[in-house]
């Protein structure tokens, strides 16, 4: 039986996009755990230093380009400050099945980070999904529904309680791995178990 890796991510995080592009290479079942990373960071006392420190922000731009080349993926930055990443996360949570959740996640990461679209409203999120061929009629009412909003808040609380402090984060049992550059450690733990 395959082990499960929980993937805590946020669509506003380019490193989440990069990590997502590599998930199929993991010999594990992946549980998608969308979260609102700034809420989690606030809960645990973390600060988004690539946003607050201009030198780190400049470095991150070069670093992201290196990782995109290594992974062979396109990378075009949206306006991260304007992005409605919570609506993107709720779209995943509103999916009627795990298969559709994966399709939604792929479509939204591609729209945001491959194509550079800044999705600022629920309507724009739904438009991006429709453009990817995903049926959106059933999602439209669910994305902003109170139970979906509560599910995202629950994911945020659980992430913070389990030690997550940023995105992307991987939980394999109680072992936490932070960042797309830790995927080799995830693979090693999976191989050793």
Automatic annotation (TrEMBL):
Enzyme class: isomerase
This enzyme's EC code(s): 5.99.1.4
Catalyzed reactions: 2-hydroxychromene-2-carboxylate = (3E)-4-(2-hydroxyphenyl)-2-oxobut-3-enoate
Family to which this protein belongs: Belongs to the GST superfamily. NadH family.
Native source species: Pseudomonas peli
Gene Ontology BP terms: glutathione metabolic process; naphthalene catabolic process
PANTHER family: GLUTATHIONE S-TRANSFERASE KAPPA, GLUTATHIONE S-TRANSFERASE KAPPA 1
InterPro entries xref list: DSBA-like_thioredoxin_dom, GST_Kappa/NadH, HCCAis_GSTk, NahD-like, Thioredoxin-like_sf
Any matching Pfam family: DSBA
UniProt keyword list: Isomerase
Highest taxon above the source species: Bacteria
Keyword Isomerase in record: yes
Domain spans labelled DSBA-like thioredoxin: 4-191
Active site: 13
Protein name: 2-hydroxychromene-2-carboxylate isomerase
Lineage, highest ranks first: Bacteria, Pseudomonadati, Pseudomonadota, Gammaproteobacteria, Pseudomonadales
Record GO terms (molecular function): 2-hydroxychromene-2-carboxylate isomerase activity; glutathione peroxidase activity; glutathione transferase activity
């Amino acid at each position: 039986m395959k082990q499960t890796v929980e993937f805590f991510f946020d669509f506003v995080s380019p490193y989440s996009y990069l990590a997502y592009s590599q998930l199929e290479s993991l010999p594990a079942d992946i549980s998608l755990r969308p979260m609102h990373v700034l809420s989690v960071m606030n809960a645990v006392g973390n600060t988004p230093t690539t946003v607050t420190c201009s030198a780190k922000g400049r470095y991150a731009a070069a670093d992201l380009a290196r990782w995109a080349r290594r992974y062979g993926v396109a990378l075009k930055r949206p306006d991260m400050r304007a992005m409605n990443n919570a609506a993107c996360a709720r779209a995943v949570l509103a999916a009627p099945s795990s298969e559709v959740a994966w399709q939604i996640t792929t479509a939204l990461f591609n729209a945001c980070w491959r194509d550079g679209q800044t999705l600022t409203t629920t309507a724009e999120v739904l438009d991006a999904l429709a453009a990817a061929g995903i049926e959106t009629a059933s999602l439209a009412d669910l994305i902003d529904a109170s139970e979906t909003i509560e599910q995202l808040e629950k994911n945020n609380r659980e992430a913070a309680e389990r030690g997550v402090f940023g995105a992307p984060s991987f939980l394999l049992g109680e072992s936490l791995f932070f960042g797309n550059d830790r995927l080799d450690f995830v693979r090693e733990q999976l191989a050793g178990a």
